[in-house]
Amino acid sequence: MSINRKVQTLDEFTMQQLRDFPSATGELSRLLRDIGLAAKRVNVEVNKAGLVDILGDAGETNVQGEEVKKLDVYANNQFMGVLRHGISCAGIGSEEIDDVVIFDDEISNASKYVCLFDPLDGSANIDVNVSIGTIFSIYRRVSLVGTPATNEDFLQPGIKQIAAGYVIYGSSTMLVYATRRGVNGFTLDPSIGEFTLSHPDIKCPETGRIYSVNHGNFFQYTEGVRKYINECQRKEKSNGGPYTQRYIGSMVADVHRNLIKGGIFMYPAIADKPKGKLRLMYECNPCAFIIEVAGGKATNGSQRMLEVQPTSLHQRTPFFAGSKKMMEELESFTM
Ligand code: AHG
Ligand code: MN
Ligand code: MN
After folding, report:
1. Within this chain, do residues 286 and 324 fall inside the same structural domain, yes or no?
2. Which of 160, 178, 199 is the last residue of a domain?
3. How far is CA 245 from CA 91, 122, 242, in A?
4. Number of structural domains the chain divides into
5. What is the model's pLDDT at position 180?
6. Nearest Cα residue to atom 14 of ligand 1
7. What does the pLDDT read at residue 326?
8. pLDDT of 67
9. What percentage of the chain carries pLDDT values higher than 70?
């Protein structure tokens, strides 16, 4: 088999990016490689979820009282294990673990990054063969390199993210990540087992026609949000309409589609979840970062998402993100 040299792997891409920064140590590049490795392992299990016993509930609940599926646990262990044994991460925070995990060994203490992740997003969709994903967020430590990481290293506002990304286990498996320099997407080529650059320099269209929200909660939304949704339903052709409603229930997949096609994703506060459902640190902030770098906007309904000062690892927040013009239209109803 001849190798197509036009194909650039994730590793090649991150190494090439380093060339522009003579002072860079390559640590971020190694961290992304580690994340890619864990993603490939999770991908193998996700692909055979219908076949093996790993499918189904683990019979446990996570720290937020939600039912945990077995693949959540598997994915969590893969990401944590790879990062713990790698040399570029001083500690992690995960949806599936109550507190942050500080690796605290000589090699980990010498690394300058910490990582937060939702190991499996959309896990209610596992049993029905619908796209699911992993979301990750990378911060530079504020504590001294050479010492164990601290809580403060994790509780930084999203604006401080060095990189953020997600993996989608879908009709194909993709890894999308953003640094301040841009958003790039890599599709897993199963024939060589590598993520290869397929979506260079992703830009979120300035406007779009897709709105993504759980309509079942409609009557629990604030008046402003309800009015905006009504506006989406009424859009005339002459005014950019008609809009179309799409909601997968795996945020990763909903955000990815809207990032590529243009659209808006909303998970507002509802009566029994006044702070919303989604988690700031490892769901909303990484997606907000990616969307913003791609040219879109993201808020909690009243404030730029990335400027919110976090107070706890698992805190929830309402979340609105997507194409710039659609976000501005939403704001004209809600702010
Ligand atoms: P997780 O599987 O990590 O718990 O996340 C599920 C989240 C998110 O992916 C999705 O957008 C949202 O839950 C769907 O919630 P609703 O079913 O309430 O709409
Ligand atoms: Mn999630
Ligand atoms: Mn999850």
Report:
1. yes
2. 199
3. 39, 18, 10
4. 2
5. 96
6. 249
7. 98
8. 66
9. 94
Neighbours of 230 (CB within 10 A): 11
Question: Is residue 282 domain-resident?
Answer: yes
Sign of CA dihedral 144, 148, 152, 157: positive
What is the CA angle 279-214-314, rounded to 5?
10
pLDDT given at position 21: 80
In this structure, which residues have their CB less than 5 angstroms from ion ligand 3? 95, 118, 120-121
Instruction: Indicate whether 176 belongs to any domain.
Output: yes
Can you give the pLDDT at residue 20?
81
Whether residues 225 and 309 share a domain: the answer is: yes
- The whole-number pLDDT of residue 4 equals 59
Using CA positions, which residue lies closest to atom 15 of ligand 1? Answer: 249
Pocket of ligand 1 contains residue 108 by CB under 6 Å? no
Which residues form the domain of 177?
10-199
Evaluate whether residue 33 is within a structural domain: yes
Residue nearest to atom 17 of ligand 1 (CA): 249
Q: Say how many Å lie between the CA of residue 171 and the centre of ligand 1.
A: 19
- As a whole number of angstroms, the distance between CA 266 and CA 319 comes to 6
State the greatest distance between any 2 C-alpha atoms of the chain, in Å, as a whole number: 63
Check pocket membership of 251 for ligand 1, CB cut-off 6 A.
yes
Residues of the chain with pLDDT under 50: none
The CATH number assigned to the domain holding 327 equals 3.40.190.80
Mutate to test the pocket of ligand 1, among 71, 267, 283, 316 (most ligand atoms within 8 A of CB): 267
Residue at which a domain ends, from 199, 223, 253 = 199
CA of 20 relative to ligand 2 center, distance in Å: 34
| Nearest ligand to the CA atom of 283 | 2
Classify residue 2: in a domain, yes or no. no
Ligand 1 mutation target, pool 251, 255, 314, most atoms within 8 A of CB = 251
Single pTM value for the model = 0.95
Instruction: Compute the distance between CA of residue 119 and CA of residue 167 in angstroms, rounded to an integer.
Output: 10
